[in-house]
Design brief:
Layout (H helix, E strand, L loop, with lengths): L6 E14 L2 E14 L3 E5 L6 H9 L6 E6 L2 E2 L7 E5 L10 H10 L7 H14 L15 H14 L4 E5 L7 H18 L2 E5 L3 H7 L2 E5 L6 E6 L14 H24 L4 H12 L9
Parallel strand pairs: 3-8, 3-9, 6-7, 7-8
Antiparallel strand pairs: 1-2, 1-4, 4-5, 9-10
The chain binds adenosine-5'-diphosphate and magnesium ion.
Adenosine-5'-diphosphate binds next to helix 1.
């Protein structure tokens, strides 16, 4: 990654407001940042601050109230096959088998892949994700973690230029999560994508990203943008280094402050946020099972 790489995604003074029962609620507040070609940018910030809303703009589902988000210099008109989205709630189609879920994107006109090549890609991702024995299973018969791996397989299989991932590893146990992180790094090394990842895990953000954007409590603003100085390829052992731990302390402190600010602001959510801070202090991701 050099800073000379072209800007692919540009947030320029972006604000988003939603109508609520008590009037207009500002969720995103004057946010400006760029994501350059080949970068891996993680977004971290308190629950409910507006992270998914920002990703929804890039995905083409939400329009900013003011400011602009440009994709390769042009306004975003709607969703497109250049952006592979992995949102928990849109992850898999319940009416398709595991195999057909993965093949789905490859059958769409924009990604049309000849049948033989398609079978090869589908089989490859079923193998990588540990789903080969479940090719004909329905999603509802899978565990939450398996459904999440299926959603990952779907997103990777179409080889989009951009990967937009909203807490993609949240429902996975620690071992699988770590394996999925390494697999993602392998896919990126082989296919060179630009990634925007939302995560609650400071460790995950540092391990995977070239930059981390720490967002404030709602209405969310950019609190700090952190360059992650570790070269790729990265290995597990990075977690044990002093540099990693120093960076982790710094990011964790920032995130904790914003969790506390969000907790003070939204009384009903306070117990959850306080709980999250406790979890972060103990080195666990906030939110528990999702
Ligand atoms: N379409 C919508 N209409 C109204 N309010 C929304 C909509 N989408 C999100 N919100 C609200 O905006 C706030 C931020 O949501 P979100 O972006 O999902 O937060 P995060 O992903 O950081 O947890 C929340 O209070 C949420 O309820
Ligand atoms: Mg969210």
């Amino acid at each position: 990654m050099t800073t000379a790489a072209p800007v692919r995604i540009a947030f320029d003074h972006v604000s988003v407001e939603f109508a609520s029962a008590r009037g207009t609620m500002r969720v995103v507040d004057d946010v400006t940042y760029d994501i350059r070609d080949g970068e891996f940018v993680s977004i971290i910030g308190p629950s409910g601050c507006g992270k998914t809303t920002m990703m929804n703009i890039v995905a083409g589902f939400v329009q900013p109230t003011s400011g602009s988000v440009l994709l390769d210099g042009a306004p975003i008109k709607g969703p497109g096959p250049d952006r592979g989205v992995m949102f928990q709630e849109y992850g898999v189609f319940p009416w398709l088998s595991v195999r057909d879920n993965i093949a789905f994107g490859l059958k769409l006109a924009a990604n049309r892949t000849p049948e033989a090549a398609r079978d090869e890609i589908v089989n490859r991702y079923m193998r990588l994700m540990g789903l080969a024995d479940f090719a004909d299973a329905w999603p509802k018969t899978l565990s939450g973690g398996m459904r999440q791996r299926l959603a990952l397989a779907r997103a990777y299989a179409v080889r989009p230029q951009f990967l937009l991932m909203d807490e993609p590893f949240g429902a996975l146990d620690a071992q699988t999560r770590s394996a999925m992180q390494d697999l993602l790094l392998e896919v990126l090394a082989a296919e060179g994508k630009t990634v925007m990842l939302i995560t609650h895990s400071v460790e995950e953000a540092i391990y995977l990203s070239s930059r981390i954007i720490v967002m404030s409590a709602r209405p969310t603003r950019v609190r700090e943008i952190i360059d992650v100085p570790f070269p790729y390829p990265r290995q597990e052992a990075l977690h044990e280094t002093r540099e990693f731990n120093e960076l982790r302390s710094h990011v964790r402190e920032l995130v904790m402050l914003e969790y506390a600010a969000q907790a003070r602001q939204t009384t009903p959510a306070a117990p959850r946020a306080a709980d999250d801070i406790g979890r972060i202090r103990r080195g666990k991701p906030p939110g528990g099972a999702s």
